[in-house]
């Protein structure tokens, strides 16, 4: 019985230590999150604007977005542009943005992250334009040139 309790407690400690600040079930692909429709133009990911507010230091505005990966591949890099929108949906400014890292967005996964810099104070929402996506198998998707 003591051995079972020790194994159980160790399991809880290891689980808690592996959790990163800001990590939550939806960051790991929680199935209770409502997914948008897959983009009809073939874009492998979609974004949902969640909120705009002060960053962790309370100094600059940042936007929180939820990312959705529709592919069976892990994403390691994204080249994007952000459209900063006011309360009426009017574009205030756009800003180039990129994200990269091993396991940035898991296959068929969803994750919440902060994006943006130099957001105008009137910004209420952020729309994301996807230019290219790189996967862990070294393949790449690029938006068609207009």
What does this structure look like?
The chain has one domain: Sandwich (Immunoglobulin-like), CATH 2.60.40. The protein is built from 1 helix and 7 strands. The strands form 2 sheets. A 4-stranded antiparallel β-sheet has the order 4-3-6-7, with no helix packed on it. Strands 1-2-5 form a 3-stranded antiparallel β-sheet, with no helix packed on it. The protein has 146 residues and is mainly beta.
Gist?
The chain is built from 1 helix and 7 strands. With 146 residues, it is mainly beta. The chain has a single domain, classed as Immunoglobulin-like, CATH 2.60.40.
Shape: globular
Cα end-to-end separation: 67 Å
Low-pLDDT stretches are 1-29
CATH architecture: Sandwich
Number-wise, the strands total 7
How many distinct folded domains?
A: 1
Q: Count every helix, treating DSSP H or I runs of 4 or more residues as helices.
A: 1
Structural class comes to: mainly beta
What key attributes describe this structure?
146 residues; mainly beta; Immunoglobulin-like; four-stranded antiparallel β-sheet; three-stranded antiparallel β-sheet; 7 strands; globular; disordered N terminus
What is the topological layout?
Elements: H1 2-18, E1 45-54, E2 61-69, E3 75-85, E4 91-105, E5 110-115, E6 125-135, E7 140-142
Antiparallel strand pairs: 1-2, 2-5, 3-4, 3-6, 6-7
